[in-house]
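Q: Hi! Curious about what DUF1579 domain-containing protein looks like structurally. Here's the sequence.
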Amino acid sequence: MKTDIRDEHRWLHRLIGAWRFEGGCETEGEPSGRFEGRETVRGLGEAWIIGEGEGHSPEGQPHRSLMTLGYDPARGRFVGNFVSSMMTHQWVYEGGLSGETLVLDTMGPSFTGEDGLVAYQDIITFEADGVRRLTSRMRQNSGWKQVVEAVYRREG
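A: Let's find out. The predicted structure is below.
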């Protein structure tokens, strides 16, 4: 089977490399601290990228994560998933690109104590050369609420 590589796949290739990140999160209206770490992103062929992260939670606990992203031409959507050693939930992504920003829709457990799953968006934005931002937000009755923000800087 021949894989038709498109501009969307090439956009994902911009993530390939070694990154350092730092950020913060907020739950239930209270800042819950800062976190930092490293991420290495590699290609899986030309159609997929895999990001392997490691760092420490705001509480100082070590964690590892794995993100897989690709583009499905048949669906016309970016697809992927995210798992972390600090969670039992697998975040399954589907999203779209607008300029320098990739918006990935997903469902996950509420951090405000609600039962069931709620809508989230993980938003990846390229800013300056060698800098990108990841913003995670959760849908609430009053609209979207940012819960995580991290800035990634290319190493080397």
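A: A fun detail: Residues 36 and 119 are 25 Å apart (CA to CA).
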